[in-house]
Amino acid sequence: MKPRRIAAARRALAALAALVLMAAPAGAGAAETLRIHHFLSPKSVTHAKFLLPWAERVTQAAGGQVTFDIYPAMQLGGSPRQLFDQARDGVADLTWTLPGYTAGRFPIVELFELPFVGGSAEATSLALTAFQKTHLRDEFADVHPILLHAHAPASFHMVDKRIARMADLKDVKLRAPSRAVAAALRALGAVPVGMPVPEVHQAMARGVVDGAAIPFEVALPLRIHEVARSHTRVGLYTGVFLLSMNKARYAALPDAARAAIDGETGAGLARRIGRLWDAAEEPGRAAATARGNEIVTLAADERARWIAATQPVIDAWIADMDKRGYDGAGLLADARRLIAEFEAARGG
Q1: pLDDT score of 80 more than 60
Q2: Of all helices (H) and strands (E), which one includes residue 101?
Q3: Sign of dihedral through CA atoms 296, 196, 104, 112?
Q4: Which residues contact 286 (CB under 8 A, 6 or more apart)?
Q5: In this model, does residue 30 exceed pLDDT 80?
Q6: Contact 163/169 with Cβ under 8 angstroms?
């Protein structure tokens, strides 16, 4: 074939290829890549044992039609308080955060952070999943919720102050994650200081706060045991977390990808993650013990005094819900019933 004919043939083939590409549906055969954003380190239980395996299971179930890039430690910018809106607005496709970081914005789910309401991470996460179906649809209507879950009951981690009695908390500055926990700390005589959990290590090291109320699972990757000398097992509250997705991004996914995500939600995921969080408490306690830190367990009669002292916080929440047109006492009773049922089922 002569050079001119070869060149003409090549141009014809190129034109045909271009027409084929133009006629093909956008993204045909290509995997959708979703970005997950959160505030903890890559070493955290959240990143390494929850989000990474979850993403891998979804990718496999979707036959590779969807993949994930996970950005820990706020790598996409912003602050932990902005993560819910990042999912809502599409800054990230999915985010993992605490609803309580935006005070008063999600008042119903706040009841699971009220003092001494939550139980184990497993039972509380399962209770949240059941509670969501009947009471939380409107509260999280701006996003597509994947999972609501809770950590294990929080302990106090103190730089110098040993906490064994309520009197020991007088005027002690303690980091608080939400307004419910802040109110509980004030009721116990402490001074709550609000801040996202990634800031706690530095705040304790610099004396901005005297300590923090968080679970041992979170304390370990943040190296809280390195700046604390005393830890008190209190069970003051359980923190509520939300993994959510941008609604439009979810709706635009291929059917197989949506089905794969749907298959990794609900009670099965809540149970798996709850057990993971409960089990993660022990390594945190072990790390503290290995450094020679003291582990204090609150005596039963002292705990009863703390429960009585923080009851006004619960009463105030009920009154606020009633003013908003909800049955506050009924919501609280339903949450406590669910937690008790799931604790009994797990032998707790």
Answers
A1: yes
A2: none
A3: negative
A4: none
A5: no
A6: yes
Average pLDDT score, the chain: 92
What pLDDT score was predicted for residue 11?
42
Query: How many alpha carbons fall within 13 Å on the CB side of residue 285?
Result: 14
- Spatial contact of 208 and 142, defined as CB atoms under 8 Å apart: no
DSSP 331: H
pLDDT of 102 strictly over 80:
yes
Within 10 angstroms of residue 281's Cβ, the number of other Cβ atoms is: 22
Looking at residue 347, its pLDDT comes to 78
pLDDT value at residue 140: 97
Distance CA 59, CA 52 (A): 11
Check if the beta carbon of residue 151 is closer than 8 Å to that of residue 241.
yes
Q: What is the pTM of this model?
A: 0.90
The first and second tokens of residue 269, run together, are 């995921």
Q: Give me Rg for the CA atoms of the chain.
A: 24
Of residues 290, 295, 165, the one with CA closest to residue 230: 295
HSE-up of 227 (CA within 13 Å, CB side)?
A: 21
What stretches of the chain adopt beta strand conformation (E)?
A: 32-37, 66-71, 94-97, 144-150, 155-158, 173-176, 191-194, 211-214, 230-233, 240-245, 294-297
Report residue 129 as tokens: 């999943």
Dihedral of alpha carbons 41, 281, 103, 242, sign? positive
List Cα–Cα distances, 156 to 195, 264, 298, 344, in angstroms: 16, 33, 11, 26
CA distances from 51 to 23, 146, 199, 219 (A): 37, 12, 22, 19
Segment 216-225 mean pLDDT:
95
Widest pairwise Cα distance in the chain: 99
Domains of the chain, first to last: 32-106+121-151+240-279 (3.40.190.170), 155-238+281-345 (3.40.190.170)
